[in-house]
Specification:
The complex is a heterodimer of chains A (109) and B (246).
Chain A (H helix, E strand, L loop, with lengths): L1 H10 L7 H4 L1 H12 E4 L1 H8 L3 H13 L3 E8 L2 E8 L1 H19 L4
Antiparallel strand pairs in A: 1-3, 2-3
Chain B lengths: L1 H25 L16 H13 L3 H30 L1 H24 L2 E3 L1 H30 L6 H23 L3 H23 L6 H26 L10
Helix pairs in contact in B: 1-3, 1-5, 3-4, 3-8, 5-6, 6-7, 7-8
Classes of the chains: A alpha+beta (109), B mainly alpha (246).
């Protein structure tokens, strides 16, 4: 019974959706990174409206998945970070976009 | 006749300064949001909105207003310093404004709004705009020289119309290429200044072709608008520190 349920879950079209990207917070981050070359924490926080803690957690997950790269540096004495989408992240976002579109397009009106 | 020659000198210097300043402004024509959750998410619109938002800090407005102040003060200084130096004196003033705005952006705006670097599409648009502005400046210079020598002995209002047309075309072009509608409005406001000034001169014999009055009003309005935008930005974005995340 359990195996059958797992099998159904795996065959479900939504299983194709990348769960790392699918979380709303991470999706917002990736959408922004997709349209620019790079940005910093402050800009990302202002645009997404996420708290520092949430932003940090989501970025860590995206970094672990290899979707973003965070360069930590300094400008004078102040910390300055640069967040960029990796090639893998860009590809994953494109796949996510087309998978989601495919699933939604198949739904009846 | 003598006053016409003096006016022509001013027009020439104003053209040159206008060209120089618009080149300086280019650096600031870099870096807002339509509803990204509208029925259809357009990534292109989102990119444009992010670009506009990062650019909308009021400092560009303050800088444009300060440039226009030259047209207000230079004619007043002309009897003491001569046409050339009364305008040239603004170069260090512009340099101070330019450097001041750059520092304010770096030390006050960026820590609040953040830093964003745009992709290939935006960069190529910037390059194209740079080229167009260069061609445009050369055209302005040529028109300025023609006004200075006044070969065709044209009446004063022709120079005003020509100047207005150049201002309107320049600002509209920058507004279109930067997708920044603010600049269209400024183009119209500034282009009206020489025309209304000339009208005041012909009708009421207002000195200096009415330029100090009309440009004074325009620059005051633009600076005021810039200060308003800047104040709202400071209120909306209190200082944040990345150290929390480090």
């Amino acid at each position: 019974m359990k195996d059958e349920s797992r099998e159904n879950e795996e065959n479900h079209p939504l299983s194709e959706i990348d769960q790392v990207i699918h979380a709303p917070g991470r999706l917002m981050i990736l959408v922004l990174l997709y349209v620019v070359e790079s940005l910093d924490y402050v800009f990302l926080k202002n645009q997404t409206g996420l708290s520092w803690g949430n932003l940090s957690t989501h970025l860590a997950k995206l970094e672990n998945a290899g979707y973003v790269v965070i360069e930590k540096g300094y400008q004078g004495k102040k910390p300055k970070s640069k967040i960029e989408l990796t090639t893998q992240g860009r590809k994953a976002f494109k796949n996510y976009k087309s998978s989601l579109q495919m699933v939604l397009d198949d739904l009846p009106d | 006749m003598k006053s016409n020659i003096q006016l022509d000198k001013h027009v020439l210097i104003c053209y040159i300064y206008f060209g120089l300043q618009s080149s300086l402004l280019l650096e600031f024509l870099i870096p807002h949001l339509e509803d990204p959750m509208s029925t259809q998410i357009s990534l292109k619109d989102l990119e444009r909105n992010v670009f506009q938002k990062s650019f909308h800090d009021g400092l560009i407005d303050i800088q444009i207003g300060c440039v226009l102040l030259m047209f207000v003060i230079a004619p007043q200084l002309s009897p003491y310093l001569g046409d050339f130096w009364s305008s040239m004196i603004f170069l260090p003033f512009w340099a101070v404004i330019y450097l001041g705005v750059r520092e304010i952006r770096k030390k006050i705006v960026q820590p609040r709004v953040g830093v964003v670097e745009f992709g290939k599409y935006r960069k190529s648009r910037q390059k194209k705009l740079g080229l167009v502005i260069l061609v445009f400046n050369l055209l302005v210079l040529a028109l300025g020289i023609l006004s200075f020598f006044n070969f065709a002995n044209l009446p004063g209002w022709v120079h005003s119309v020509r100047f207005s047309a150049v201002i309107l075309a320049g600002f509209s072009l920058a507004g279109y290429m930067q997708e920044f509608p603010h600049l269209y409005l400024y183009g119209i406001l500034i282009a009206l200044a020489p025309l209304i000034g000339e009208f005041l001169y012909i009708t009421f014999q207002v000195p200096h072709h009415g330029i100090p009055i009309t440009f004074g009003i325009t620059s005051f309005l633009i600076i005021l608008n810039g200060l308003g935008i800047f104040r709202r930005l400071l209120k909306a974005h209190p200082v944040t520190s990345q150290e929390i995340l480090e």
